[in-house]
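Subject: for your reference before the review

Hello V.,

The reviewers asked for a structural picture of the protein, and I figured it would be easier to keep everything in one thread rather than splitting it across files. Below is the amino acid sequence we used in the manuscript, unchanged from the supplementary table.
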Amino acid sequence: MPSSLQPSDRLLVIRLGAVGDVIRTLPAVRWIRGAFPDVPIAWVVEDLSRDLLIGHPDIDEVIRFPRRELREVLVHPLRAARALAALLRHLRSGRFTIAADFQGSVKSGLLALLSGARRRVGFAPGHSREASWMFTNEWVRLPKTRMNRVTRNLQFAAALGGDGDEVTILLPERAEEQAEADRIIGELRNGGRPVVVLSAGTSHRQRHKRWPPGHYARLAALMERTLGVIPAIAWGPGEEEMARAIVLEAGHGARLLPPMGLRLLASVLRRADLFVGADTGPMHLAWAVGCPVIALFGPTDPALNAPLGRRAVTLRNGGSTADVAPEAVLDAARALLTAAAPRPDPTAVFRMHRSDLPASPGAAR
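And here is what came back from the structure prediction:
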């Protein structure tokens, strides 16, 4: 097992994407920061999730991983070479003593190796992918293979000397995001009616996780008619046509949210009464900012990926997300919306006690 960090160390965190994975690494970094407040912490991350980390109080430096340039290596080889060289210079100039590979892939393992860090910490064989353990020289061994990702990452933090009684997710909100989210939610609420955000999209690579657009349309119509809520359809790049089709099929009660980045979406979700979506980045963003969540699962494992918190419900009915019926989601929404709970608090921070975690981590020594 790895030895603990020392006050003289310089730590590089490697968790490149996706949005949900980055969010679920934040509690581990919070534990490390709490135990070692003076250790410089840098995080190398792709563009998709980079905005969530900029200005974060637990992170001293955010290093951009140039995924777009590297993917175009055959079209623009010189541009890709320059981007890679610039990244390597940036990593080496950080003089990192420890590289913490929270991702466990060949790409992240190579970054740990190329960082020049003498200690390269990763998950042990059997708990990492693509033989990434070959690029690390200290391994975190987990008590079992099927663990919620937050719990798994906290085991990693504990192995480095991080600790805490709370699991906390900090996602700071800028004044302009607060003002814009207040405006969006204020215009949606009609006489104080609850706002439910529905997110139908996924990345193209993860389209197998999607709940069918027709199911979202039926759910939106049922919720508006029987629960008196305002269904608001969120969408990302390339998803506007699908989102508009859902609104049209759902009828007059559904609303289309404007285009927005992750940070503004987080601010909107802080103020919403409920979120419904599949196992995607927006779903993890929702529970991370304290919004009640109904998470729809099919091919992915809820034991690994279910949202945390007492106001999160996971629905699964077989190997396809499409097998979850809109009526089942409606019943779960009714229960969450009618439970005795305060209205959304945009200033709230997600917190839970470590003992409430699935397979609560201890000091992994």
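For the response letter, the relevant points are probably these. Residues 71 and 212 are 30 Å apart (CA to CA). The chain has 14 helices and 14 strands.

Happy to draft the paragraph if you're swamped.

O.
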